[in-house]
Structure formats: C-alpha cells, structure tokens
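Re: beginner question about structure tokens

> Can someone show what the tokenized structure looks like for a real chain? I only ever see the sequence side.

Sure, here's an example I had lying around. Input first:
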Amino acid sequence: MISARYATPAALLCAIALVPTVIHSYVGLRNVDGFSTASIPVQFGSVTGHPTKRTAAWVEENFEATDWFERIYTHRSGQVVLFVGRSYDAKRLYHHPELALLRGLGLEKGSATVARVPQRPDIPIHTIPVTKDGQSGFSVYALLHDGTFVETPILYQLRTAHRYLFRGREPMTLFMATDLRAAPEALENAASTRLLLAAIAAFEAQGPRKSAP
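And the corresponding structure tokens:
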C-alpha cells in the first residue's frame, strides 16, 4: 500500500508516462514533412523506369507505407529494381528490409556490409550480395530519417528516442536498388549505386535537410 502523501506524485508520474502511449498508440500523432516519393522521376537521363507488379496492399502490410513506388530501370547491361518507401513505423523499414523486398533471391546470411562511396561519403550504403539463377549481383539501400542518413538503426533510435516521447513521429524513407549483374567490388560505379544516389538527390531536392541530432 502506498502512503497517501505519495499518491499525488505517483499519479502524476503515471500520467506523464502515459503521454507517449497516447500520442503514438491512440492519437497516432505524426509530423508531416512535406516530402514525397513522387519527386523521384520516372526517367533518369536515357533510362526510364517501369512499375513492377508489387501491390499497395503488400507494401502497407509489410512496411505500413502508403507513399512508395517500385520500378524497373533497364540499362545497357541489365536491369535495376528501385524501391522507395516511407513509413512512420521506422522499424518496419530498417529491420532487414531485404528479407521482404528481395524474397526469392539468394541471400547469404551475415554478408551484409555498410560502405561509403566518393560521390556521397555522407551516406552509409548498406550492401547485400544477391544471387538468382546463377547470376550474382548486389542490392544497396540507404535509410533517411528526420534529415539524417542512418548507419546503425538500433543505436540511432536509442540516441533519438527522447525526441519523440512527447511529439509525433517523423517518417523514415528507405531507398533500395538491386542489380543482379553487378560485382560487389565495383560498388561506386555500379548501376544500382548510381541509381540509388540519383533517387536520393531527387528526393532531397524537395527541401533543405535538417541538422543531425
């Protein structure tokens, strides 16, 4: 039994603790940043993208995202599949997105790495070797949240969790490009990397980036 003199402070602390739950679970407060995947063009230079058969229901179920697209861009030596999606449930996007998006491809467990390229050293690029029907290539992806490119999602969320205790969520954006004909050692020159960076640049052109936390 709690002493009566502690009842009011205890009730106040409980009420404060409930605020984040109400904001995120019941009210579902979100901070709309005005950015959209629609800013990323269908055509880059002479290369034009065409929609895949991915459905809106699938994307919403797996990533809780309604702002997204997936296109196939055909270049001289093959094809690159570009997926860009945004979700207010960041974990849906950063927790092994390749397991959903690359289903059906050969993925070597524990082979994912993070690299940086001279064109954009500020972007940690997650790289995953993939295989299909004897062909080898790789998938690259980047995560953008509240103006910051995320290298280690779990540590990033721990570092920024306090910012969202009493405010709405910010959307996370996943950019992923997959090419089955690219060699991992050619990361900076690969068609998938170039397309990934072009998509990010087009997305960023909508407005200034925020400062990193």
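Each token stands for a local structural state, so reading them left to right follows the chain. The chain has six helices and ten strands.
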